[in-house]
Amino acid sequence: MPALHLFIDTNIFLNFYSFSDDKLEILDELKELTAPGQIVLHLPKQVENELKRNREAKLQVAMSDFKKAQLPTGVPHHMRGSEAARQYDEAVKSAEQAKKLLIANAIALALSDELEVDQKLSRLFEKATRYVEDDELYQKALVRMNKGNPPGKAQSIGDRYIWETLLAQVPNGDLFIVSKDGDYASPLTMDKNTRPLAFLAEEWNERKQGGHLTIFRTINEVVAYYKNTQNQPDAGEHVATRIPEEPENPEVEDDGQRQVPETPAPALQFGVPPQEVIAAVPREEIEAAILQLVESGSFATTHFAVANLNRYRQSLTKQDAERLFQAAIDNSQIGWIVSDEDVNDFYLSLITQWVTEINQELADSIIELLGLSPETPVEEIF
């Protein structure tokens, strides 16, 4: 399979100096997967500069919060006077001293760039595809900022400079972004199923020959996604069910008259919904199409089944929608890629038509899976 092209926003790296959603070990795991033909980590110089500029401020806030956190020292009167109470008092004093030493040690390591996270990031960056400063791209970022085009907040050029670098340097095709600050993601989606900002998705699609953007909020999520794609059976092992066609006889004789049979429907292309909508089809065809998605055993089959089902979308019933919603919840081969554009669009269409009519518990579950409850954006430091 082709390499996975990855960009990680500065806020994700900075969070390792505080209370990250990712464990520190994920940096080692990502480093091992960063190689030609596997994961290609794109690292603009602007990201490295932002990390250097904001690292110490992030550390200071984290250490201050840790220092302020107090151990419970007040012991109720009925617990006092016992050996256990004495041991507790000693343990609290010991913990306070250990905390003081821990903070001092961390500050010393931080000032020397010798924190464990410093070393892990340095080793990861060595394997990344790095891009130097580019004045021409910076000028493009200025124009983008003055026009008010995303990504980034008003009068902020950093994310726009990074985006122009990615547009110029990343090969045609898909790009996976790990970010938490909302500059690349739609404000209408939650962390469980983050969709890219429509403006950026359309721009990437136009500039990168149909490429798609996918947004993750943690490195662990994208690494798990990559491993799942690696564990998928080869595409050649899957022979997708074709839509029923006319018999393949070259010609048919009827009362001595030569008849040319109708041209059979073309096989579905991977991930491309057929353009026509079948108005009236036998129920068994719809059942077969639903079953193909419900029992999907691979990402490739899921994409094909979704494309197939788009043909019958207008013929689906409430019961069909409930089966398909339940399948997205139960079947990891659907749930893992429910944020992929074709799968997501298909389920959103089912939501708009059936969410008010289906079982409330099921509706709540599918709403959570698709991330359809807007969250309050959290401003990140820097």
Structure description:
By secondary structure, the protein is of the alpha/beta class. The chain folds into 2 domains: 227 residues, no CATH class; 119 residues, no CATH class. Helix content is 50%, strand content 7%. A hairpin with a 2-residue loop joins strand 6 and strand 7. Helix 10 packs antiparallel against helix 11. The radius of gyration is 27 Å and the shape is globular.
Largest sheet: 5 strands, parallel
**What is the overall shape?**
globular
Number of E strands: 7
Question: Cα distance, first to last residue?
Answer: 37 Å
Q: What class, by secondary structure content?
A: alpha/beta
Q: Biggest sheet, strands in spatial order?
A: 3-2-1-4-5
Helix-strand sequence: EHHEHHHEHHEHEHEEHHHHHH
Count of alpha/pi helices: 15
The fraction of residues assigned to DSSP E strands is 5-15%
- Range of helix content: 40-55%
- The chain-level mean pLDDT equals 85
The whole-angstrom Rg is 27 Å
Classify the oligomer: single chain
Low-confidence stretches: 235-278, 376-382
Pfam families: PIN_12
Organism: Halopseudomonas salina
InterPro entries: DUF4935
Domain DUF4935: 6-184
